[in-house]
Amino acid sequence: KTFTVAVVGATGAVGQTMLSILEERDFPVGTLIPLASERSAGDQVEFKGGKLTVRDLATFDSSGVDFALFSAGGGISKEYAPKFAAAGAVVIDNSSAFRMDADVPLVVSEVNPEALDSIPRGIVANPNCSTMQMLVALAPIHRAAGIRRINVATYQSVSGAGRSALEELGRQTANILGFKEPEPQRFPVQIAFNLIPHIDEFLDNGYTKEEMKLVWETRKILGDDSIQVNPTAVRVPVFYGHSEAVHVETERKLSAAEARVLLEKTPGVTVVDERAPGGYPTPVTHASGTDAVYVGRIREDISCPNGLNLWVVSDNIRKGAALNAVQIAELLAAKR
Ligand code: A2P
């Protein structure tokens, strides 16, 4: 059995990767339909050694689509995802538009696939990239020892902000090395050779929305509203791969050695923890272009009795977005 798959935002950073992951994993695609705005309609994208012509989402008739993978921003999802679902597709949406709706499952494929048992609106939400990789690593620790509190600082690459952000880091880096002005456009201040403690909009409590996604989505995915999460989200001048310094406090004591054993047998996780130069994961040496969530620097928190520290790195465009969306499609396809 094969499926008709539409990729909405097929020319974007995530959409392009959705196409290559569908191909790599040999998802049973009968017809693939790349969609974007009228700006790119008529352009070509590559799929399985051939070329497909990008079509304009606004004028596309969505009947006959089995799976629609959306990654064109929240506004586009709000407007078009319900239309695709009404026409019979299951929408897997990478935006934040529906994530916190009670009747929309929010799924990390390794963590809560059972949430796919009921899809009342025909829409499944793909979690935020930072939440995604953090929970692949933390779900087994939560099951084993009960996580009470998570302190997390993120180091997020520019690709999370899309194609234009990748271009901006490249352009600014070249400008600065050529003694020219960096000229910020996509980010509020210079990102090359800098850090920006601001992702998504500021909220009334002083946290950014990106930070609150780590709070809200963690509770929904783990099904536990008592978990306390204290996040700081930072954009760093890295092209691909998010990193996170994660400090958890658990109900029961879990030693670093026990955590390592647990993580080593966790699907989706690769432990890289040598305690020697280079013996830890980084975005460039491990994560970029690969599928795993890498965990290193596993150690007990010397400042609190049941505390554990982890360094978690993953390709935000792959596990953090496109890969998980395709994994959700695989789980759904297996049920048909
Ligand atoms: P387009 O190439 O037509 O602009 P990124 O996150 O890398 O910036 O990519 C965003 C994706 O969303 C692109 O594929 C982009 O297509 C698509 N997109 C943006 N606006 C619209 C729109 N109004 N309708 C359909 N697709 C859109």
Walk me through this protein's architecture.
With 336 residues, this protein is α/β, with parallel strands linked by helices. It has 2 domains: 3-126 and 321-334, Rossmann fold; 131-316, Dihydrodipicolinate Reductase, domain 2, CATH 3.30.360. Helix content is 30%, strand content 24%. It has 8 helices and 14 strands. It has helices at residues 13-24, 74-86, 129-145, 163-177, 209-222, 256-264, 283-287, 318-334, and strands at residues 3-8, 29-36, 44-47, 50-53, 55-56, 67-70, 90-93, 123-125, 147-156, 228-235, 242-250, 269-271, 293-300, 307-314. The strands form 3 sheets. Strands 5-2-1-6-7-8 form a 6-stranded parallel sheet, with helices on both faces. A 6-stranded mixed sheet has the order 10-9-11-14-13-12. Helix 1 (13-24) packs across helix 8 and helix 3 crosses helix 5 (209-222). The longest helix has 17 residues, at 129-145. It is globular. The relative contact order is 0.15. Residues 9-13, 15, 36-37, 39-40, 57, 72-73, 76, 162-164 line the site of adenosine-2'-5'-diphosphate.
Tell me the layout of helices and strands:
Blueprint: E1 3-8, H1 13-24, E2 29-36, E3 44-47, E4 50-53, E5 55-56, E6 67-70, H2 74-86, E7 90-93, E8 123-125, H3 129-145, E9 147-156, H4 163-177, H5 209-222, E10 228-235, E11 242-250, H6 256-264, E12 269-271, H7 283-287, E13 293-300, E14 307-314, H8 318-334
Parallel strand pairs: 1-2, 1-6, 2-5, 6-7, 7-8, 9-10, 12-13
Antiparallel strand pairs: 3-4, 9-11, 11-14, 13-14
Helix pairs in contact: 1-8, 3-5
